[in-house]
Amino acid sequence: MLEKISILIADSQYLIRLGLNALLSEQENLKIVAEATSESQLIASLHEHHPQVVILDYNQASAFGKHTIHLIQKTSPESNILIISGDNEKSNIYDVIEAGINGFLTKSCDDKEIIDAIAATSKGEKFFCSRVLDYLLEKTFSKPDEKCITTPLTAREIEIVRLVAQGLIAKEIADQLNLSTHTVYTHRKNIMKKLKLNTASELTLYAINTGIIERN
Predict the structure, then answer these.
(1) 159 in helix, strand or coil?
(2) CA angle at residue 16 from 30 to 97, to 5 degrees?
(3) What phi-psi label fits residue 109: left (phi over 0), alpha (psi between -120 and 50 degrees) or beta?
(4) What is the pLDDT of residue 145?
(5) Which stretch of 68-82, 112-126, 149-163 has the lowest confidence by average pLDDT?
């Protein structure tokens, strides 16, 4: 039997904790080991449980803040951090991501995204919902004062381009690379934005022209 993913919920809002409890308790591979409504409770629970995943809403002035991320990293460096927050302030989101969290969801995300995000976070992968991903892409590519510069793809992105060009669908790519399907979609969306492409056919042509795959 596989070991369950241990989770600590750090959120001062009762209804959010209740909702997460109801959702996560239905998953056989997940286990909530503690809840915290303040930093003191959070630190004590981290010392006791060292969970694989900490679900945190940093945007709660009376309970948690952006500095809470650093406290988690210092107290339990083996714990990965998933943010689930209603904060829509882009500068805050950028700061939090740069602090080294693994995933970021808004509180409007659905149950499947939450489950997928926890699975990815537990493995140290990055997972961002579509709204947060759009913010990141906007920050990366909206630079009107700079000349357009071709952004090189990362090794992982090149690997995904090669598999897409070979005709594999997202689930097949995810299985082959041991990633979640959502992570593959995230990479693909990022690739298409970087290359300013719209279709798989265009991506395949790019792969051929750049030598990522050989022309038949």
Answers:
(1) helix
(2) 75
(3) beta
(4) 47
(5) 149-163
> In which residue are the tokens 């060292």 written?
50
Q: CA–CA distance from 163 to each of 65, 126, 152, 184 (Å)?
A: 41, 20, 18, 11
* pLDDT per residue as tens digits for the range 115-152: 999 998 999 888 888 788 877 766 655 544 444 334 46
pTM: 0.67
Separation between Cα atoms, residue 190 and residue 196, nearest integer Å: 10
119 phi-psi bin (left φ>0, alpha ψ -120 to 50, beta other):
alpha
CB-based contact 85:107 (threshold 8 Å): yes
Three state DSSP letters for 160-189 = HHHHHHCCCCHHHHHHHHCCCHHHHHHHHH
How many Cα atoms are found within 13 Å in the side-chain-facing hemisphere of 172? 8
Is 106 within 8 Å of 129 (Cβ atoms)? yes
